[in-house]
Amino acid sequence: MEDGKVVSIHYVLKNPEGEELDRSAEDAPLTYLHGAHNIVPGLESALAGKQAGESFSVKVAPGQGYGEKQKIKPIRLLRSKFPPDAKIEKGTQFLMQGPDGRPMPIWIAKVMGKEVHVTPQHPLAGVTLCFDGTIQEVRDATEEEKSHGHVHGPGGHHHDEDDHGHDHDHDHDHDEEE
Fold first, then answer.
1. Do 106 and 144 fall into the same domain?
2. How many domains are there within the chain?
3. Where would I find the H helices in 1-136?
4. Of 8, 38, 79, 123, which cross-links 174 as Cys (Cβ 3.0–4.6 Å)?
5. Where would I find the beta strands (DSSP E) of the chain?
6. 128 and 3 in contact (C-beta within 8 Å)?
């Protein structure tokens, strides 16, 4: 596999203790554009050179995953700042406008009544990631996918007219120490 290829994988993600953290849906593999930084760097580099049909078992250190855990004071927001139908629970991801005006992912760290504590730190920061899976399909990316930096269509990203406000992370529900 090389940069500029669209890759579909089925995977199971566990922590070093063997607890399952995430998995691809049986009928919907994770599809990404290889070389475009759509997945954690350690997994992407481990998949380089592999082909469709191959299995993989990869341990990704925090520095090549979601980063080292840092002491970051959560931001306190009122529940009313979120959409009324939003799932407000620990680990849920949202996008908010960052200091530079661009979308920035945040995760709910704690819910206390009408107050919601959010953090820009991924819930899996500081965790060694253990991936096991199979490469389902590899194909050439379209010119549009290459220029946008992500996959379009089934298993990938969908655009509204000129909408480029999106993220490529998955929602996770995990306990987080504070």
1. no
2. 2
3. 41-47
4. 123
5. 5-14, 20-23, 30-33, 55-60, 75-78, 93-97, 103-112, 115-119, 129-140
6. no
Does position 99 have pLDDT exceeding 90, yes or no?
A: no
Q: Can you name the residues that pair with 139 across neighbouring β-strands?
A: 6
- 61 and 129 fall within a common domain: yes
Stretch (H or E) spanning 145:
helix 143-148
Is residue 141 in some structural domain? yes
Its domain, for residue 131, covers 5-67+125-148
Within this chain, do residues 95 and 134 fall inside the same structural domain, yes or no? no
* Amino acid of residue 78: L
Chain segment 43-53, per-residue pLDDT in tens: 999 999 999 99
Asked, for residue 12, whether it belongs to a domain, the answer is yes
Can you give the three-state secondary structure of 8-38, one letter per residue?
A: EEEEEEECCCCCEEEECECCECEEEECCCCC
How far, in Å, CA of 138 to CA of 130, rounded? 22
Task: Give pLDDT, residue 151.
Answer: 81
